[in-house]
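Appendix B: a complete holo record

For completeness, this appendix reproduces one full record from the ligand-bound portion of the collection. The bound molecule is zinc ion. The inputs are the chain sequence and the ligand SMILES; the output is the full three-dimensional arrangement of the complex, encoded as structure tokens. No fields have been trimmed.
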Amino acid sequence: MILSLCTGRMTSLQMSAQEEMVEKFLDAAARGDLKQLCALLSHTPSLLNQTGYSGWTALMLAARNGHHHLVEKLLSLGCNKLCTNSSSQTAYDIAKFWGHRHIARLLSLTDDGGLRGGTLSPQENYFSRETLDRLSGKRSDAAWLEAKQRDPDTVYLLFSNRSPMATVTKDTSGDGADVKLCRFRYNAVKDLLQKPATVLVFLGAERTKNPPSSTTSSSSSQTEQDTPDTPVWFAINSDEDAAELLKRCENSSCFFPKTPNRDLLRLDEEEAGVVAQARSVLAWHDRYSFCPTCGSPTSLQEGGHKRSCLNPDCRSLKGVHNTCYPRVDPVVIMLVIHPDGNQCLLGRKSIFPARMFSCLAGFVEPGETIEEAVRREVEEESGVKVGPVQYVSCQPWPMPSSLMIGCHAIATSTDIKVDEDEIEDAQWFPRQQVVDSMFRGAHQTLVIPPRQTIAHQLIRHWIGINSNL
Ligand SMILES: [Zn+2]
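The structure of the chain with zinc ion bound, as generated:
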């Protein structure tokens, strides 16, 4: 076996004794011989991460052959599970490929010396948590909405220029969320509700954590059962001076985020989900205050989820028109994988922080499928041609109302020709460099976008490591 023990000044005899020991150790891992593995390790702890033929570690061999108890033991001793072999596979990839799901799960869930990447669950992206029950059926119930506005339990979020009033907190959650939304009650905002320029949007009701038992709900009417008796939330956008609005909050550290792309990523998952909805709808009101069909003034309806034209002759009042409802703009965002499977294509825009590269992305055009949009955008921006496209997950991105449709795509060509009007640079990055950059701090030439972005999650998905790490 080829070894990586070339440090120190060893004689050829010592070298071969070392080689022999590593070979024995790796053989024990491959056979599932826990007793021998432990005996060798207690004698020579440095064997733990040694590699043999093609860069395989003991963990990889144990994962390949389905030895769950060995994998467990090696992880408990702190072995490095992010090592890759000469085919750029981690132990997780190997376990997954050979169908040892219980081992793959073990490798994906176990903490690895402080490499936690946040609290997102697999397939859940930031801004995508449905914190509130939207109760869309209640939006047309004007009397119910009006009563809820005056309810002392109702929560109001106050927006200025589409940014929510928030305050900086001491981070206690451990996931880096250090900004909290300021919550107001009816009495603190009722004057704003009277002003014609104020936009009010019904967001939904808090979800019941403990649903009522069958004995207590049996006497309720159907309507009461359909409408949970939990506090409802509204968002208000006010055109009043922001400094004056801030005086309404008792907390002196409150502020309206000036750079939403950065500041809104500091909320916890629950509040980020609410902001995703509120900010997009408020931004729509801001940009569509007049009828897109005839240019007449419009009125707010359905709890702020519809605008109707006030011109009785307008075409938009006949039939169904999507101009009456908040818009969502589909964007494809894709990690393009090299035909060899071991490199990915990342690009950077000049506005990115230094050394940051991310997935390519672009708006879906009318009459275009997701797959075609991926192929077109990748070729336009980088000159690389793409074959198969696979959907992975999506993310609402309220800047102001995109839906990021995350895909993996396999390249069929590799030459890069950057469209400098769109991006500044694009490069193929080897898997090991991406792994290093993501888990071992900023790499000299590569910084990956933060975990709240779907680009980060698409890259994580590719390197085969569970988001819960
Ligand atoms: Zn109109």
